[in-house]
Amino acid sequence: MSLTIKTLGRGRRVAAGSLIAVTALTLSACQNGTDSASSQSSSAAAPATSSASRAQGAPSTGGSPQSAGNAARPSSVAKPSAGTSGVPSASQANPSAMTASDRCTAENMSLRLGRTDVGAGNIRVPLVFTNKGKKACSLRGYPGVSLIQRDGSAVGTPASREGGAGGSVRLQPGQSAHAVLHTVNDGVSDIPCWKDSQIVFVYPPGSKESMTTNSGGLRVCGGTFTVTAMEAGVPS
């Protein structure tokens, strides 16, 4: 009788030990399963978080929400350099002295004939341009010159160019420059003189706007009618 009791007691101890072992394995498996799922979930979520951070302008290495917000502010965006689309270059934001905007035009000048110089059969008359504007401007090259009558009809042909092109003449407000009209006296050549003119019709160098002044009865003879390039000042 006592033997049976001992056997049963041992069997209960074995069964109890087996139950403890099974329970431990089950708990271990559950714990391992949870850890594995958590690890897989974390690794799967990491790329999405990184992509979202990059899309928002945050550093790919992560960081606090405050640092991510700072990275996404407009002030962190690099400004376009000069010369790119929509940004002017240094040469576009600052024109040179020879640009059209700096050239003396008919609008900001006055025009007159200077004192006639007669000698050795030649007649030379200064064509004087004066800067009447409020800022400095430049003239360079030859003016276009024709003689006309009061009704607008042309007298002869436009003046041809004489001498070199010269350099740029800078005129401060009130300053003058001149070109010289040249013809010859009647009788110097067998070529007949043109009719008397009443008006000198002029295009300043580089301009498409005309100016006029009284010709003082200037008459071209000998088929000679020329104009020089601009020079500074006015002949005395």
Automatic annotation (TrEMBL):
Comp. bias intervals (Low complexity): 36-55
Source superkingdom: Bacteria
Gene Ontology molecular function, alphabetical: protein serine/threonine kinase activity
Biased composition (Polar residues): 58-69, 82-99
Signal peptide: 1-29
Pfam families linked to this entry: DUF4232
Keywords from the named record: Kinase, Serine/threonine-protein kinase, Signal, Transferase
Region (Disordered): 32-103
Domain named DUF4232: residues: 104-230
The UniProt record lists the keyword Transferase: yes
Protein name in the entry: Serine/threonine protein kinase
Keyword Cell cycle attached: no
Organism this protein belongs to: Streptomyces noursei
